[in-house]
Design a protein that fits this description.
single chain, 0% strand
């Protein structure tokens, strides 16, 4: 993709505004919008041209060996644009290896294919290696930095793990520090009233 002198001026102005924000005129904004639209159109046109070349390459490859000259020229063009040769291209070049141009393209395609395979294998190896798991689950780790968490020197024993299906054990009742009073001591029996003493009649 090549830019003209006017397009380079607009691009330079847009980069300057991006690096050092400053007020821009309406004309500069319209120029930037037109340049963006032109770039988008060029990218779309490049994609259409690439699709056309790949379809043409497939037609030439299907008509080999009579179309060897056109096929080799098209293959050289698409390789320059980043095309990844497939198994059909390698097989066709092996059949044409007597042609010096085909032999050179075969070596080139083998190199490109090997690089692509190494890149795929490297990507798989990076994604296939699982991250190391912690030895202790996160829910069981000590909260040492939070108030109330256990410290390293805390020698309190942890409760024994519960066995599946076993009934929970009840905590032992605390021993009383003094004897428990009996109901008779708490509520003593009421005494029956005694009859007043009889006074002897005088006389």
């Amino acid at each position: 993709m090549a830019f003209g002198a006017e397009e380079l001026r607009v691009l330079r102005r847009a980069l300057a505004v991006a690096l050092h924000p400053s007020p821009v005129s309406d004309a500069d904004v319209q120029d930037c919008l037109r340049l963006a639209a032109a770039v988008d159109e060029a990218v779309s046109e490049g994609a259409r041209l690439r699709a056309f070349l790949l379809a043409d390459l497939a037609r030439y490859r299907a008509a080999l060996p009579g179309t060897a000259t056109g096929y080799l020229a098209l293959l050289d063009d698409v390789l320059a644009s980043g095309y990844q040769p497939g198994a059909d291209d390698l097989a066709a070049l092996r059949a044409l290896r007597g042609n010096p141009v085909a032999a050179a393209l075969l070596d080139r395609c083998r190199t490109v294919a090997e690089r692509a395979v190494r890149a795929r294998l490297a990507g798989r190896s990076h994604t296939a290696v699982p991250a190391p798991r912690p030895l202790v689950p996160a829910s069981r780790t000590r909260l040492l930095a939070i108030p109330g968490g256990r410290s390293e020197g805390d020698d309190r024993t942890e409760p024994a793990p519960k066995t599946p299906g076993a009934p929970p054990q009840k905590p032992a009742a605390p021993e009383p520090s003094r004897p428990v009073p009996t109901p008779a001591e708490v509520f003593p029996p009421k005494r029956r009233p005694t009859d007043p003493p009889h006074q002897l009649a005088a006389g």
